[in-house]
Structures are given as C-alpha cells and as structure tokens.
Design brief:
The protein is of the alpha/beta class. 39% of the residues lie in helices and 16% in strands. It contains 19 helices and 15 strands. The strands form three sheets. It has a seven-stranded mixed sheet, with helices on both faces. A six-stranded parallel sheet has the order 8-11-12-13-14-15. Strand 11 (271-274), helix 11 and strand 12 (301-306) form a beta-alpha-beta unit. The radius of gyration is 22 Å and the shape is globular.
Amino acid sequence: MTPETKRLDLLLINPGSRSQVYGRLGSSLAGIEPPIFAGLVAAVVRRQGYSVRILDAEAENWSPEYTAEKVAEENPLLVDIEVLGSNPSASSTPKMTAAGELARAIKQKVPQAKTLFSGLHPSSLPERTLVEETADFVCQGEGFETIPLILEALKAGRGIDESHIPGLWYTEDKRVKSGPMAPLANPDDLPMTAWDLLPMGKYRAHNWHCFDDIEHRQPYGVIYTSLGCPFNCSYCNIHALYDGKPGIRFRSPEKVVEEIDFLVKQYSVRNIKFIDELFALKEDRVLRLCDLIIERGYDLNIWAYARVDTVSEKMLGRMKQAGINWLAYGFESADAQVRRGVAKKFEQDTVARAVEITRAAGIYIIGNFIFGLPDDTLDTMQETLEMAKEFNFEYANFYVAMAYPGSQLYNEALSQGIPLPAEWYGYSQYAEETLPLPTKHLSAAEVLRFRDAAFKEYFSNPAYLRMIKEKFGQNVVEHIERMLKHEIRRKFV
C-alpha cells in the first residue's frame, strides 16, 4: 500500500473455525453460511460514508496467520472480529478460540490497527473478553450504533469516551470502562446486507436442506425477518446479543421480499434460510410475507424455525406454497418435566398436533433435541430418542446440553462449580474436546456417549432409511450412509 492510498476505515472478519467447531464434518457435510451481521454492520457503516470490506475466513477456510496477512494488505484503521455463528447459541462461543488466535496474529502483523471483538460471545462476556484477549475494544450488542461511533472517534483522532459510545468496552489506565447498553435497532431502518462484500460463491446449504436435490447446495443465502426472541429458555443465550431481555422486533414483509428479489436476481439463489430465532410466530405477518413470495413465482427452497405451539394449519399451508419446505422444531425432550426444567413449556399432545398439520401441509421436519438437560436420566433420554424414531422426522439434530456464556445454565454452572470446557472450542457439539453439562443424575461422559450412539441409531434405523428412499431417492440414502461413516473423536468419552 502506497502512502497516497486511502486507508480502509473498517475491516470486518468472520474468523475461520470450521475444523475446530465441526471436526472432519466441516469439509463436506456442514453448511457454510454468510455472516449476516457482518454484512449488516458493513452496510450501516458504508451508508455513513466509511470505507469497509469483509474477509470471511471461515468460508475461505483461511488460517489465522494467513488471514492476518490479508489484514496487513488492507492496513485498516479498525478491525472488527465478529464472533457470531450461524446457529447463534450453539456456534458462537466455539468460534472464540479461532477469534483469539486471529486477534493475536493481527497484532503481530498489523500492530497499528485497532482491534474490536463483536458478536454473541463478546456480548455475553464483554469484560472477560477484553481482559483475556488481544483487543482494544469489545462491542456489547448489535453494533449498529457502537461501531460507527468508534470509527468517528478514531478518524477524528480524539480519545474514546464511553459515555458517548453505547455498547463499548475498553481499558484506560489499566481500568475496564464501559458505556451504557446501545439502543436496539429498528429492522426497517437498517440497509440491506452488503452482499457484494461477501464471497457468495463459497456458501452452501446444509445437506438435509437439499435432500430434494443433494448435488445442488449452492448458491445459498440467509435472510432475517425478525431480530430477537420473546421466549426465555434457560439453555439459550441469544438475548445477550440484544439488551439481555426477551423481545422480538419484526422487519416488514416488503423489506424481506425486496432482499429475496435481490438474492434471486443477482446471485440466482434458490436455497434460503430464514435465520430468525422464531419465524412462525405471528400468523398475519407470516401470511403476508408468504403471499408476496408466492406472487413472484419463485421456485425457492426455504427453511425456518418454528414452535409447536405457534403454528396453524392456515400458516403452514401458505408457507409451503411460498417454498418453505423445511421447519425446525425445538422439541428438546420427550419428558414434560425435563422441558419445564429449562422453561420450555408445552404438552405432548401439542407436539403430535403440530407434527400432524406440518406433514399434512407437505413440509419436512427437522427435529431438534437436547440430551443432558438438568433433569435428564438415561430413561428420559431414551424416551426422547424413541419419540424421535416414532415420529421418523426427515432429519434430526441431537445436541448435548451446554452452558453457553450468557445463558441461565452458564450462570448456574458457575455458581455450582460445575466443570466447563477448558477451551472455547470445547463448547462445540462436534469437536474432540466437546464437554457437555452433567445432569443431576448423569456424568458429562454418559450424556455425550448417549448422544453419539443415538445419532447412529436414528440415522441407521431401517424405517428411517425406507422413508428417505421413498421421499428423496436412493442417492440420499447413500449420502446418509456416507455421513454415518464419519467418526467423531471424543476426548471425554
């Protein structure tokens, strides 16, 4: 870079952590999702006149050292390392190990650049992140107001004043200082994601998302129609990214469809994820959005999150017409007492009804389950596995309960002295170092062993494979059989 070249104001980085988070599954089976918050921050900053670029080290599969070399080429004023995974609760904290390695590499290669951590994990533990990691600043919250104000202060050459920059954490004279929480953004005031700054050819959908066309998982895009969640499950930490409290802000259907139009026309995207924590909530807005999509006649393949106690037949029918082919339901456990123990309150007949009307609409189901919740026993976990097998969902995610920073389970684990992962990537579901929570009755090793056995039992079940063959063909059966050959190494089993 020559002295005459204008210096880049902001460089946003999605740190590369695929191998740490997914192990050997990361090379082919896992989805690769666009870092939408980085794209949103970039769009906000660019609208205010600052120059900005994004490096998606995860999509590019770059090491921290190579990414730091790319940062040196840009010589930015501010580097924002975004620690926010595609499944926010489950995949944000595991990225922190790679994010920390990247920050240290940047400080060695580009010592003149100011560094910032943002995203869900830094928002959950802002002071600890600031103290333990190599960073000048931590952003707590969304960053849409915080980051432009940091840039303004840096470009003006004046000192940072936390009273004028909400959401900012930094150190001064070895003392940690922080500003007030930043106000939450109105989604309709935000510009469209800066898709032009992302390597759109690198992203791919999850394997199950494309069971109807397994060879074409690209191109792929993600869209939000709301921010936040009105519920308060104790295993979830998503509220730490916002203001720490349950709540949801809706984006207008017209704005959502404007972005779908852009992705379809500019990048030929067919496979789309609605990243909302809970998409199927308010029937009237779901119907309005679906009608707008239907009017356009797109052949989309969309998936979204739903709850068994918020869907209706009318909503599901319209969703299927719009191309929402998959819904992920958080069943968590077959045992009502186990669910109530983590503030997930619905009855089993509600589950059966939701499954029935979802299938009647022609929508496939991803069943999400968590083994090792505080009240789980071997019997209740077996009951959960049998429930999954009985319903025979087109796909199932079997998680182990983790005390993610920012969640109620994390605070309880700290107060009770429960051992937690020694490294941040130990919070991953698929890593060799994965260390779940013990329950009141079971050790962490017993929970993890059960989970891995349950995964194999579910996906090798003859009834499941017959159903998959009937719906998607023999090639998908063979894909699943190849998936089962991937052994997950576990240190603690």
